[in-house]
Amino acid sequence: MSSVAIVDYGLCNLDSVRRAVEECGGRPIVTSKPEAVLAASHVILPGVGAFPEAMGNLHRDGLVDALRRQVIEKGAPFLGICLGMQLLATRSLEGRPTAGLGWIESEVRRLEPSNGSRVPHIGWNELRIEHRSGLLDGISDGADFYFVHSYVLWPDRDSDVLARTPFGDTLVVTAVERDNIAGVQFHPEKSQRLGFQIIRNFLKV
């Protein structure tokens, strides 16, 4: 059974993520301790809130170095959810320019409403899959997932993009992957059967 560190840095109610991991066969450990991150086989970084505060809390708790060691150096499978995906970026423009983890070259920008779309983007919306991956096994093109966000990650390289989602007149990136690192802008823990399929796929890595 996979031991899954669910990183707690003070910006998310983690009960739904913990329950989803349990339901999908993992052994979740909700933690703010670097040593627990370093002991886990898999790492999930969830989050809802502001990017600058999130990065500040991760630095404060010594988690940035622990995440780098476990994910980058040791190759532990990593999944960022919502804000956790955005934290993969080189930098964010939310509030004030803030450096992120820098694991995927990208910038986080505010969604621009158009053609009747509203910010924040809340509710069910579809994934348009661009690259197939084990993370998306069993997920059909056009499948719906649950979103709540006002900012979005814009990667420098299309090769890092797994899927995009319609928002107004454009398509925004909503799933990324590079090697052992993945991120989803939607909430799999709130996306019912297909969301749990994403988590099961992650735990198989």
Tell me what the structure shows.
The protein has 205 residues and is α/β, with parallel strands linked by helices. The chain has one domain: Rossmann fold (3-Layer(aba) Sandwich), CATH 3.40.50.880. The chain contains six helices and 14 strands. Strand 1, helix 1 and strand 2 form a beta-alpha-beta unit. The longest helix has 13 residues, at 192-204.
Briefly, what is this?
The chain has about 200 residues and is an alpha/beta fold. The protein has 6 helices and 14 strands.
Keywords:
single chain; about 200 residues; alpha/beta; Rossmann fold; four-stranded mixed sheet; about 25% helix; globular
Give the low-confidence spans: none
Distance between the termini: 12 Å
- In terms of structural class, how would the helical and strand content be classed? alpha/beta
Topology order in helix (H) and strand (E) letters: EHEHEHHEHEEEEEEEEEEH
Write the layout of secondary structure elements.
Blueprint: E1 3-7, H1 15-23, E2 27-31, H2 34-39, E3 42-45, H3 51-60, H4 63-73, E4 78-81, H5 83-86, E5 91-92, E6 98-99, E7 106-110, E8 121-126, E9 128-129, E10 144-149, E11 151-155, E12 161-167, E13 170-178, E14 181-184, H6 192-204
Parallel strand pairs: 1-2, 1-3, 3-4, 4-14, 5-7
Antiparallel strand pairs: 5-6, 7-11, 8-10, 9-12, 12-13, 13-14
